[in-house]
Amino acid sequence: MANVFGILTAIVLALSAFVAFKNKAAYETDISVTQTRKEELAKSEKRLAKDEEILAALPIEIAGVDEEVDQLSTDEAAQQKVNAGLTDQVKTKTDKIAEDKEKLDGIRAKTAPIGNLNELASKMRETNSAIVELKLAIEANEAKLANLTAETVSAESQITSTKSKFDDFAEGRSLPTLNTRIRSIYPNWGFVTLAAGNNAGVVTSSVLNVVRNDTVIAQLLVTAVEASTASASIVPDSLVDDTTLMVGDRVVPGLKETKPAGN
After folding, report:
1. Are residues 138 and 187 in the same domain?
2. For residue 194, which of 243, 167, 237, 227 has the smallest C-alpha distance?
3. pLDDT tens-digit readout, 64-89
4. Number of domains in the chain
5. What 8-state DSSP symbol labels residue 228?
6. Residue 193 contacts residue 184 (beta carbons within 8 Å)
7. Which of 92-101, 146-155, 244-253 has the highest mean pLDDT?
8. 199 vs 170, 223, 256, CA distance in Å?
9. Quick check: 259 pLDDT over 50?
């Protein structure tokens, strides 16, 4: 009996130990599961908090997006207006290109009988170049002609002047350009010397006027001439009354029939 009781007790203890072992294992499993659930809960709470922050920021972002949408709408309207203007410009330019092409085709049709336009342009450039060269040659010839004309006029003037001088010399007249002074006076012999000779146009036997204050006061008759001086007799009765010739009185060409004032 005692053995049976001992066996039963051992069985009960063994069962109790087995149950206790099983309960401990289940308890540890529950603790592990609970810890896992807590960690998952913490992660979920963290995600929830982050989502709540995102949710709280959404109205601001939505407002910003709305502003961007409004701005984009405004920009789109402006761009559409610009595009419409560009479309009009493109159409205008397209029409102009078509018009110019039509004109060019017409020009090509008209110029077809005279050959290629490039060849024609080359010929025109050559012709223009030749015209420019001809104009330059004409201008150069005209300049030469002008110089020759000027030289001819100058030569004719010199010839006329020389002929006039020869005529004056031949007819016993001093040159009209003569303008000199009395250098010295010899009243006892009735003659004076002049400060100019044949180099200045004094001619032998010519009559000269002595001028003082724009008035002829006497006449001289040239008797001898050298290169830079001459001598002349005082024409009798030609000296103005109460007047005396003076060194430095001006002497100019005169006429033989000229009579001094006052006589």
Report:
1. no
2. 227
3. 777 887 888 888 888 888 888 788 88
4. 3
5. S
6. yes
7. 244-253
8. 16, 16, 22
9. no
- Asked if the structure places residue 56 within a domain, the reply is no
Where in the sequence is the domain holding 239, given as residue range(s)?
Answer: 174-253
Answer yes or no: is pLDDT of 171 > 70.
Answer: no
* Domain identity same for 155 and 186: no
- H helix intervals, the chain: 2-111, 117-170
Q: Report the CATH number that the domain containing residue 202 is assigned in CATH.
A: 2.40.10.340
Residue 25 has pLDDT above 60, yes or no: yes
Bridge partners (DSSP) of residue 232 are 192, 222
Residues 95 and 162 grouped into a single domain: yes
User: 């002349």: which residue's tokens?
Assistant: 232
Q: What is the pLDDT of residue 194?
A: 96
Spatial distance between the Cα atoms of 253 and 182, rounded to a whole number of angstroms: 13
Mean pLDDT of 42-67: 80
Same domain, 98 and 153: yes
How would you class 226 by CB atoms within 10 Å of its CB: exposed for 0-12, middle for 13-18, buried for 19 or more?
A: middle
Q: At what angle do helices 2-111 and 117-170 cross, to 10 degrees?
A: 50
Predicted TM-score (pTM) of the model is: 0.38
